[in-house]
Specification:
By secondary structure, the chain is mostly helical. It is globular, with a radius of gyration of 22 Å. It starts with a helix and ends with a helix.
Length: 405
């Protein structure tokens, strides 16, 4: 099924376009109904996805004490490269400036409650501090949820190993597996959703404007990913005294496999083998750093979350100011770090964030088949970034060992 998934999705998109162009009232009614059902299902799964992902990821990382310096190096460069990826995507978004889809595409009803407008920066800051455990979930307060998840995850990582901690972690992991099962079911029937979303949107929009707007959006994503891969990450290597060409050549098999599998986790054995046998990375470094990076080092995801969130907000009539951009850069980085193990994680995390602010997420439906292609590039970038962080950690460890002799 996975082998032919992209063709099935593209076929569903084409069918949706044809049905939308027919502009038959009965068909449009069915498409609108199905699109509404899928939007509700997305929103049902989106918030718990990001909550459980962030908490379990942070809880699993905090107990690493044996290799403290290596752990700090890994997290430091993970955060630096992830912030850089999001910043690069932001620059491209400002420069390329994707236009809005036709007004009929986005109803704007979801943002009509005015939650996007705060009277002052003090009010914005206070709104982030939760005063009730349940309220951020009910209100969809994204920043408050992330702050709460961050605190709970770190607190769990700092708790001593005990039966209560084990019970809590097992419970969270069980809920996460249950959620992943539901997500896999939703993914399995996504072709029907793609038909519905495409049919709904095409029936309401001008095709030329759609292609121009979406084309620029895709250009932002791809340009950001490729710039991160071939300019930014090599700069990190050069500053650490490593040869980017040699490093990329050594890891090329893993990067290529990531492109076709669209899974950093599935590529991990090849990534570790390339690092040890072709780059000469110490096994104690590769077997410690690479699993952590596979979990938290999501450069491509940060870029996707930021650019897509800005695009959806802009199309919902939300003012995208520089303050908004910087705040969402931070949100994208934190969300990407918490993306570990989530099927179609970047897509669902972005859905969660947009649902949380009350935006109309119907635009996400037309991005689905496009995301399949973007995901291939993003996963390659993620594995290449993992490789760079691993090489840098290995270089620093060797330097420290040389100094101690």
């Amino acid at each position: 099924m996975k082998k032919y998934q992209i063709f099935i999705w593209l076929g569903a998109l084409a069918l949706g376009v044809v049905l939308g162009l027919l502009n038959v009232e009965a068909i449009n009614t069915v498409m609108n109904f199905l699109a509404t059902v899928y939007t509700r299902l997305f929103r049902l799964l989106a918030v718990p996805t990001i909550v459980l992902a962030v908490i379990t990821t942070l809880a699993s990382l905090g107990g690493s004490k044996e290799l403290g310096r290596m752990f700090r190096t890994t997290l430091t460069f993970t955060l630096l490269t992830t912030v850089a990826a999001a910043a690069v995507a932001l620059v491209y978004y400002v420069v390329i400036a994707p236009g809005n889809l036709p007004a009929d595409v986005v109803s704007g009803e979801a943002v009509a409650d005015g939650r996007q407008v705060s009277t002052s920066y003090t009010d914005q800051l206070l709104s982030v501090i939760p005063d009730n455990v349940v309220r951020p979930l009910l209100d969809g307060n994204v920043l408050a949820l992330l702050l709460l998840c961050f605190a709970v995850g770190i607190a769990l990582s700092r708790m001593p190993e005990s039966q209560p901690k084990t019970v809590i972690l097992n419970g969270l992991t069980g809920l996460q597996e249950l959620l992943y099962t539901l997500i896999r079911w939703l993914i399995a029937i996504l072709p029907l959703g793609i038909v519905a979303f495409a049919g709904q949107l095409i029936a309401e929009m001008g095709a030329g404007m759609m292609l121009d707007s979406l084309g620029k959006y895709v250009a932002v994503i791809l340009a950001g990913n490729l710039t991160q891969m071939f300019i930014v990450l090599p700069i990190f290597l050069l500053l650490s005294g490593l040869n980017p060409i040699k490093t990329f050549t050594g890891m090329s098999q893993a990067v290529l496999m990531a492109f076709f599998t669209k899974s950093s986790a599935a590529t991990l054995p090849v990534t570790m083998d390339n690092a040890e046998k072709r780059l000469g990375v110490s096994p104690k470094v590769s077997r410690f750093v690479l699993p952590i990076c596979t979990t938290v080092n999501m450069n491509g995801c940060a870029a996707f979350i930021l650019a897509t969130s800005l695009f959806v907000m802009q199309n919902n009539g939300i003012a995208v100011t520089w303050t908004t951009m910087l705040v969402w850069l931070l949100i994208a980085v934190v969300s990407a770090v918490g993306n570990a193990g989530v099927p179609m994680g970047c897509y669902f995390l972005t859905l969660s964030l947009m649902s949380g602010i009350g935006a109309d997420v119907s635009i996400m439906g037309i991005i689905l088949p496009i995301y399949t292609i973007i995901d291939m590039v993003e996963t390659s970038e993620n594995v290449w970034s993992d490789s760079c962080v691993c090489a840098i950690a290995n270089r620093r460890l060797k330097a420290e060992e040389a100094e101690q002799k």
